[in-house]
Amino acid sequence: MRKFIIDTDTGSDDAIALLMALADKEIEVLALTTVFGNVCLKQATRNALISCEFAGVNIPVYPGMDRPLVRERIEAIHVHGSDGLGDAGILDPKLKAQSKHAVSALIDLISEHDDVELITLGPLTNVALAMRKAPEVLKCLKKITCMGGAQLGYAAETEVAEFNILADPEAAKIVFEFGVPLVMVPLEVCLNGDGREGAETILNENDLMSIQAIDTLKSDFLLKISSSLLKFHEIYYGDVGLELPDPCAVAVALRPDLILHAYTANVSVDISGSLSYGQTVVNTKGGTVLEDQIYVANVTIVSALDGRGFKSMIEEAVR
Ligand code: RIB
Ligand code: CA
Fold first, then answer.
1. Residue 319: is its pLDDT beyond 90?
2. Which atom of ligand 1 is nearest to 164's Cα?
């Protein structure tokens, strides 16, 4: 059975992604590790515990870093609401978080289990520190599937940088250059990807009505916590739509057969601190104009995901 750890800054799309992963009986989610990001660490941990309760699963949740390595902390409450779950009045969880720190938990779990796969849904601070603290252990990771990065024009937080990377560019640089197989699921994948036929991942009004018709506690939870995302989409695009970046990353990790297109590239993270701070700079051209630069394809980038299969995974997760 495939074994996963999920690192999350639990906002509304993370919560839906967690429902998807925790509903899949073909895999084992060993633990969740939480990190600052959409909201503060305390809120992200609360929201991760709430997600476990709605999923009907009691797995260890380990709180991690509450701030980035170098830059000041940013957050995305303008997108997810002040509580990170759409300010929908979701009650506090009964489940409690573990006292062990997420960085130690990552190291211990990866050393105790073979072939662990890591899914990252937030800033990469916990993962980067685990890599720095125990590189030989983290090298045993089978794969990292990272929701993060964007191609030019798709980035949300600045013109060139996606939130998870921008929130801790130095951590992202450590993780992207570490050498474990890394699959990057950039922001555009949840925005219908590269536009090819069948890559429609944005949930439209009909998709939302199908979820509403499922009429379970989980489907109701999904719609309630998505209220801020829906408002944000309407302001940004002027219509009804729900883009779900973290669920796309979980779909890629659990169901790689749903990937319509992916390519390998060299990806570096800009930590210059200038206008392009946090940009994921993608080089697919092999060599460079500087003869002595060596081209290393360190990342597989997903550019299109099967929209119908993706939406079915979400519906199954809340049924
Ligand atoms: O840019 C989208 C990413 O930032 C998602 O993971 C979302 O939850 C936020 O963390
Ligand atoms: Ca997230």
1. yes
2. 4
3-state secondary structure of 303: strand
Q: Which ligand is nearest to the CA of 149?
A: 1
Q: Which residue, judged by its Cα, is nearest atom 10 of ligand 1?
A: 122
DSSP conformational letter for 44: H
Please, what is the average pLDDT of the chain? 94
* Best residue among 8, 9, 20, 185 to mutate for probing ligand 1, ranked by most atoms within 8 Å of CB: 9
Averaged pLDDT for residues 214-228: 97
Rounded Cα distance between 106 and 253, Å, is 18
Residue 289: its pLDDT value, please?
54
> How many helices and strands in the chain, by DSSP H and E?
13, 9
Q: Is the pLDDT of residue 290 over 60?
A: no
Sequence ranges of the domains in the chain:
2-318
- Ligand 1 geometric centre to CA of 157 (Å): 10
On whether the CB atoms of residues 161 and 126 are closer than 8 A, the answer is no
Catalytic positions are: 9
Residue ranges with strand state E in 35-140: 61-63, 116-120
| Residue 184 pLDDT exceeds 60 | yes
Domain covering 2-318, topology: Inosine-uridine Nucleoside N-ribohydrolase; Chain A (3.90.245)
